[in-house]
Design goal:
The chain has helices at about 20-25, 60-70, and strands at about 5-15, 35-40, 45-50, 55, 70-80, 85-95, 95-100. The chain is α+β, with helices and mostly antiparallel strands and about 110 residues long. The radius of gyration is 14 Å and the shape is globular. It has one domain.
Length: about 110
Amino acid sequence: MGYESTLDYEFYKAEIENLDELNEKISKLDYGMGDVKVVKSSYGGYSIETDNYTGKFYDDEEFAESVSKYLVKGYIDLIYTGEDGAIWGLRVYPNKVKHLEARFFEID
């Protein structure tokens, strides 16, 4: 039995070069992220397209590392929510990936 998670994302003033080359590299990933594509949106930004935003994304870090090599400006947050409610994330910068930690605070 595998661990299912849901992918969410946000692009922050991101600029990506060689989008076709990046997507070809991503397509070679074989542990969940291989069917994901980074696409230019009609409004000029970027989005992530996939047939299923819920899956076993075991190669999430490899995906992030691949994207970081083509990201030339800005950053991208990749947020995953596991079937048990666990939340983790990766912040992708040009040539660097950092882990994000979810924290919850009580608000009055």
